[in-house]
Write a structure and sequence with these properties.
Blueprint: E1 4-10, E2 17-23, E3 25-27, H1 32-40, E4 45-47, E5 54-56, E6 61-65, E7 70-74, E8 94-98, H2 101-112, H3 117-134, E9 144-154, E10 157-164, E11 170-175, H4 176-187, H5 194-197, H6 208-223
Helix pairs in contact: 3-4, 3-6
Length: 224
């Protein structure tokens, strides 16, 4: 069962000791206030009672969405305490790892929208590769460093934010037609998820590296 934990920490600015209140889990379906704090990253913001400075203090947390049937674990892979969810009916749930706050917020947004993160990660990978080719590896334009799903613009378009290594971030739109085509390829190739299913960790990592491997598998199958 989720509970609040109080820990004494040292302020990064003034070095004074103060209390930090943390949650080991957030049930988004039962606490809308904490849900919004997780989705914006504010759950990790801490204000020092001595100097008034605000710092971002990261700690492990399990995000549970009972309406959309998914959980996202933010912390070391394989370290989520089963006691946080073992009393629940886990049928139809998806379990994901998130290693950064950006990944945590992105996974929540993707799964809340009823999208498949396997498909989106491949879509993101393909877009980043296309930009890289168009700029000839950065010779004719900025190099993309990170791409995140933001929202559904409408029923036909998806919005992403692209962060570049040497230029301001940009919003980018991609069509649902592209998403649906990739979805067909993923559905026709169950072997893409075999490694995830065989994993000892209930919480699966579906990220850029997974997409890179998946694209290689899809490419090899089409050539063969």
């Amino acid at each position: 069962m989720a509970k609040q934990i109080v820990k004494e920490i040292e302020c990064p600015s003034c070095k004074e000791k103060a209390e930090l209140k943390m949650w080991d889990a957030i049930n988004a379906s039962l606490n809308s206030g904490l849900k919004e704090q997780v989705k914006t990253g504010k759950i990790f913001e801490w204000k020092c009672p001595h100097c008034g400075k605000t710092a971002r203090i990261m700690y492990p947390i399990l995000y549970i969405d009972m309406l959309n049937y998914f959980m996202v674990w933010f912390g070391a892979e394989g370290k989520c305490d089963p006691e946080l969810y073992q009393s629940m009916d886990l049928e139809n749930y998806q379990f994901r790892n998130a290693r950064t706050v950006n990944e945590l917020m992105e996974k929540i947004a993707i799964l809340e929208n009823g999208l498949d993160d396997h498909v989106l990660e491949i879509q993101k990978f393909s877009i980043v590769q296309a930009i890289y080719r168009q700029t000839e590896g950065g010779k004719k334009g900025p190099v993309p460093g990170l791409m995140l799903f933001r929202q559904m613009q409408d029923e036909d378009n998806i919005l992403f934010t692209v962060f570049f290594q040497n230029a301001p971030a940009q919003m980018m739109r991609s069509s649902m037609n592209s998403y649906r085509q990739i979805e067909k390829d993923v559905s026709a190739n169950p072997s893409l998820q075999k490694g995830l299913e065989d994993s000892k960790d209930k919480f699966q990592t579906v990220d850029f590296q997974w997409a890179k491997n998946a694209v290689q598998i899809l490419g090899a199958q089409k050539q063969g």
